[in-house]
Structures are given as structure tokens and as C-alpha cells.
Amino acid sequence: MSSRVLRFEDWTSPVPATRREVLSALPHPDDGQPPLLFVPGLGHGAWAFREHWLGHAAQRGFSSYAVSARADGSLRAYVHDVVQVAAGLPKQAVLIGHGVGALIVAHALARYPARAAVLSAPVMGGWATLGSALTTNPLGTIPAAFGGALKLNRRQLFAGDLPEADGYLARMRREPSGVYRSVFEAPEPGAPVGSPPVLVVGSPDDRIVPRTSLDRTAARFGSAPLLFPGMGHDLMLDTNWQEPIDAILDWLIKELAA
To answer: Using one digit for the tens of pLDDT, what is the confidence trace for 46-59?
Structure first.
């Protein structure tokens, strides 16, 4: 079943309609697993999941979808889009967010009764994350503190020598200037509807999300983070991308069987 929780502001100040980019990879045959909806973080799009995770999840029997953020939006608009796309899927979906996409998923959980959720390298404590990013990339981070654009670099996103790194960086988009401040100043997400199981995954070597943030986010959902040492922030694109998605799917299969 799919349902939505409507808020007062949805009636008084509705989010403008938009055309959404949704990419998909479907299993053959479909063995009845719940669909997965992947939500990218700032600068990324649905393409970041199409590279590896969408097809890999489909090969393991999951209908997989990824939604890009609208070109001119806000955190509230991004949450709205995720809820709308999830509600339009044929069955109750699993929401999987990366980076700021994890923050979007956390807020969407308060409005959509997800089957489960995964927060990958979650950017949840905005200002704390900004402080961590400042130490590794001050020139690219300082503008974001004043409403400007955040420019991430290769060293922050990837570990080691990833041949495709330059190509991925070239595909990163510039977000609307107001989005960064709305993320850093975002209120705490509300309690998830239906108390779905939530898994937090990340790397202790992430140069954007500190380990303390991973621990804090996981504790919020009553667990400990699942860690992948030696990887960068972009778990879905880095060299050992298969390890996190297989661990996520193994966890999910176990939860669905419980």
C-alpha cells in the first residue's frame, strides 16, 4: 500500500509541479521484492545510481528506480518529489538516499510509509558536515556557508585512483544557491511513518561525513552504522561499489523475511 501524509503548507503553499527524471532497471523475472527508490545527493543525479547500483540490484531481483532532483528547487520540493514518485510505484517502496539524498529520505519517511530505508553517507547534521568539508576542501566549501555553491573535489568523493573520477566530476551539476542553506538549516526530520527498519551505511574514511555523524545518525534509528573502510563519500561510484550495495541488499532481504 502507498499513502501520503499531507501537511498544512501543502495546501497553503503547494510545491510547483515539475517534470521528474526517473531512471529504472527491472528484474527478469520479477520475484515480488519491493521496489527500490534511490535518491541522489546535491550535485548528483539519477545517473550516479545507473552507473552500477540500479542494474546490480535488478540482477538480484529488485525493481530499481532513481529520481533526479528538480533543477530549481528546495529541500521541501525535493522531499515532495520523492514522496510523489514513491507513492506512484506499484508497491510499498524501500527508500535509499545518498549524502543530502539521505536527509531527503529521512524527511520523506515522515510522510511516506516506506517498507524500509537506507541512509548512505548521510549528510544529516548540516553545519557539522560543513565543518568537516572545510578541512579537506576550504575553497570549494566556504561559498556554501554564505548561500553560494558547494564545489566538491575528487579527494572528497573518491578513495584511491578511480579512472572514471574526472568523468564523474564533469557530470556534477551546480545546485541553486539557496538549496545549500536550506539543507544546513533544515529542521530535524519527523518520526518515520510506520517505524520502518533503517540502515545507515558509510565509510570511516569519508572526507565529507565524519564518523561521529554516522554514529549519531545510526543511533537515532537504534542501530550502529555499517562501515566500508577505504572508500570515499560516493559509495555507489567508488572502486569497490559492489560491496555496499550487496550488503544493503543482504540486509534488506533479511529484514523482509523477518
So the answer is: 999 999 999 999 99
Output the pTM of the full model: 0.88
Alpha-carbon gap, residue 250 to 121, rounded angstroms: 18
- Cell readout for 151 is 564545489
Give domain 8-257's CATH number out of 3.40.50.1820, 1.10.1040.10, 3.40.50.2300, 3.40.630.30.
3.40.50.1820
CA distance 31 to 116: 18
Report the C-alpha gap between 6 and 12 in whole angstroms: 11
Q: Left, alpha or beta for 61 (phi > 0: left; psi -120 to 50: alpha)?
A: left
Q: Give the domain ranges of the chain.
A: 8-257
Do the beta carbons of residue 139 and residue 232 sit within 8 Å? no
In terms of C-beta density within 10 A (0-12 exposed, 13-18 middle, 19 or more buried), how is residue 90 classed?
A: exposed
